[in-house]
Every structure is written in structure tokens, then in C-alpha cells.
Amino acid sequence: MKKFPFIKIEDKNYPTVIMGEDHFTGWFKKCKKYGSEDEREIAYRAALKSAYSLGVRGFSMSPHPTLIKVLKEFKNEHPKIVCISNHHWHTNYYLGDQSLWLGENLERLESSESFYYDKNLIKCSDWFKCTNLEKRFSKEEIKSFRLDEKEYQQKLDQFSFCDFFIVGNLGRSALINLGRDDIVKKEIELVRQKGLVPIGMCEGGGLTLSKYEKMNIAGTWVWINRHDSCPNLGYALEIIKKSKKPITVYKVFTSPDGFNLDKSLSFIKKIKQIKSIVVGVDSKEQAEETFSKLHEYWN
């Protein structure tokens, strides 16, 4: 099977098709659950092998010990694959000694976003509805947000087998849009000090992309599909089409109409700034089905 092509980002190979690992973590509502870590390991390795056999050479990784172990071993077996670290889950960001990833604090971040963001941009956006504005962080609390640099360095070391590193992954790009872009800039600095390449996590879409591109990043990951992006699809597309750095998109197949590979890929292929796609699978069988079909559109 023909390999999906690479592009060059800062003279390094970067994959145009990336297999995500979220469904194997079991962290989220729709993710697959496992009876044991051995079961999880077997399932993830099988999906990796299937994806690789179908030409996938890019793999993302979050801080799940079992999945890290498997991907690290797979990288040793296949050194030309490219791994992207998304190392933030439940670490790095704090208010005092309290993690900003705690459920209550994530809810407060959502409230703060709804309260402090430009009202003209978010007034009709579904991304900022149904939040209790009284739970928002005060401006003084936002000024007190901090990056645990020691912990962050440890994460970079843990993910040393990766080639690219996601930065700024909290909420809908909350740090940047709440005026704490200094935290994201510090992440970028720490990644660069290791000789690694930072990629901005732009869940905030059109609200954040142009701000990211003024930073020392190599590209961005943007949440978008043919129905929606933050704060809305039309506004996000206007910003995306002005982008000067390569964009990787995720949540491409999310749709109220159900999965439709043809329509989803036809939509993103029309946008020249989009160079890469993250595809989540939850099994060997799904990897085989999705990546074999993807060759019709992506090569």
C-alpha cells in the first residue's frame, strides 16, 4: 500500500495523515473502555500495525502510560514514523496548587471565556452558550494562572521519542484568549530549548489562529468540520484562508448527519491552507476501513 505523503515543516518530515489515540485512552464519554491494560495494549498495537500497513506514518500521543509504551516501542521498530506529543492532559497548568484541569476549573474556564471574549464574535456561537457566568475566574485569578515548568520539562523528557509537540492545549484556546499567551510562549520556549518543534493547539479556531501565527510555532491544529468551527464556521474559514503556516485539522468527521467520509474530505480538500488531518479510530477494523478509503482522497 502506498504511503501517505509527508510535507516539510522546518526541514522535518511532517505527516499529512495522523492516527489519533483518544479512543484508546478511555478518558472521554465516547471512548472505548477496556477490562485491563493488557487488553488496551493489544488493541492499540493492532490498530497501529493496521494503520502502518495502510501507509500511515504519523501518530499522536497523549500522556497515557500504556499507549506511550506501545507507541515508543513501535517507533523503535519503525524509526521513520513521526510522532506528535499532546502531553497536557491533567498536567502543566495551575491556579496556585490546583490544576486547571479539575472539573470545576474547566467549567470556570468556560464561564470566563463566555464572559471575557469579544461579545460581537461569540454572541451567536453555540460554543459559548449555557454557561454560568457567575462561576468565571476573576481577572486577578487569571493573572495568577501558572505553568509548572519543572513538570513540563518532565513531560518533554517523557515524550522524547516524539518529533513535534503540541502547545497551548487547554479549553478552547483559553490561555491565549484570556490574555495569558505568556504561558503558551513559555511552552514554546521550553520546547525549542530541547531542539523540538512546537505546534499550536487551536481549538479556539478563528478566535485564536491569527494570534498563534504571531508566535514562534511551526503550525497549528484546528478544530473544524463541514458544519462547525469556533466561534462559527464562516468566521473561522475567513481566518483560516489568511493563514501563513500549515494547518492540521481534527474533528473533521464530526457531523449531526452521521459519518460521511466523502462530504467531509471534499470540504477540507477545498481549503489550501489545510495540509494534514488527524483521524481517530477505535480498533484495528476501523483503521483498516478508514485508512484504505482515505487513499482515494488524500494522495
Average pLDDT confidence is 95
The helical percent reads 40-55%
Number of domains: 1
Give the low-pLDDT segments. none
In CATH, the topology is named: TIM Barrel
Which structural category fits the helices and strands?
A: alpha/beta
Supply the CATH architecture. Alpha-Beta Barrel
Please trace the helix and strand order, writing H or E for each element.
Answer: EEEHHEHEEEHHHEHEHHEHEHEHEH
Q: Count of helical segments? A: 13
How far apart are the first and last residues' alpha carbons, in Å?
Answer: 12 Å
CATH class category name: Alpha Beta
Give Rg in angstroms. Answer: 19 Å
Task: Please identify which CATH superfamily we are dealing with.
Answer: NADP-dependent oxidoreductase domain
Write up this protein.
The chain has one domain: NADP-dependent oxidoreductase domain (TIM Barrel, Alpha-Beta Barrel), CATH 3.20.20. It is built from 13 helices and 13 strands. The protein has helices spanning 22-25, 37-53, 65-77, 103-116, 119-122, 139-143, 149-158, 174-177, 181-193, 209-212, 233-240, 261-269, 284-298, and strands at residues 6-9, 12-15, 17-20, 58-61, 82-85, 93-95, 98-99, 145-147, 164-167, 197-202, 219-223, 247-250, 274-280. Strands 3-4-5-9-10-11-12-13 form an eight-stranded parallel β-barrel. A three-stranded antiparallel sheet has the order 7-6-8. Strands 1-2 form a two-stranded antiparallel sheet. Strand 6 and strand 7 (98-99) form a beta hairpin. Helix 2 packs parallel to helix 3 (65-77), helix 2 packs parallel to helix 13 and helix 12 crosses helix 13 (284-298). The radius of gyration is 19 Å and the shape is globular. 41% of the residues are buried.
